[in-house]
Amino acid sequence: MVMTNLIDGKAVAALVRGEVAERVRALRERTGAQCGLATVMVGDDPASAVYVGNKHRACHEAGMASFDIHLPADIDQAGLHARIDEVCADDRIHGMIVQLPLPAHLDEDAALDRILYVKDADGLTPAAQGRLATLRPGPRPATPNGVVELLRRHDVELRGAHAVIVGRSEIVGKPQAHLLLEQDCTVTICHSRTRDLPSITRLADILVAAVGRPQMLTDEHVRPGAVVIDVGINRTDSGLVGDVDFARVQPIAGLITPVPGGVGPMTIAMLLKNCIDAAEAAAG
Ligand code: NAP
How far is the CA of 130 from the centre of ligand 1 (A)? Predict the structure, then answer.
């Protein structure tokens, strides 16, 4: 058998999606309820259309119902809010996503604030994030929760481990810190004003890169044997690369996620998991 230190995000995501499919089937058999996800997309941004299409395909594969709400690019804020309210009130829908970015004339924060937290499949609304920060049940931010799932499924010891996160965004860095705290890690968060970054990242048992700068973290940032999780997705002339210089870090890492094929596939899997969690809770 070939030994590898690669974390296979595609394989773990497939496992999670399989488990979701099983729960969707069991819920339907037990209660007759069909788990459903809605996407709300405004306008015709081609990249957003691809992302939305991927989410519907994943729903279909998990046996879930999916609702494709496609609104005209010139819809106003009140019109968008009315559609979000309709989805929130629809008992067939247990999770929803407002696909970002919205056209420039629309206020994204106001639209996200409109989503009922129980139906927030991305787990990114302030209400869902507040529930995470205060350890209340609720949907968890999909990408950073996918990171925790990858670590758990590779038997990485989390309790007491020092996790260093580079990045403090609302969608990755900050919720990642809360999620790893919840797992009893000791957490350090770094950002663009952090002094002497390598001296801090080298203390990490688990290093999470969520910077958005191609291959910024190199072997000088990594303690040999550390687990390295690369959330970054950067499109460059030489293709898709992460925030970690994979060629230099992979030989010294204990475990490492590739890009692509590491964290990326986990986002949709965890979004489906948020949905079935909500559907089961709604069914009682
Ligand atoms: P973001 O909002 O741009 O945040 C980047 C963070 O990195 C900020 O907190 C910033 O610090 C910090 N930073 C920037 N330059 C730095 C430096 N030189 N040293 C230390 N810290 C630095 O990005 P994001 O939305 O969190 O996304 C991060 C990456 O993850 C991107 O590549 C994105 O494409 C990817 N991503 C992937 C998924 C997925 O599904 N796999 C999902 C979401 C995001 P300041 O706060 O001080 O500015």
Answer: 21
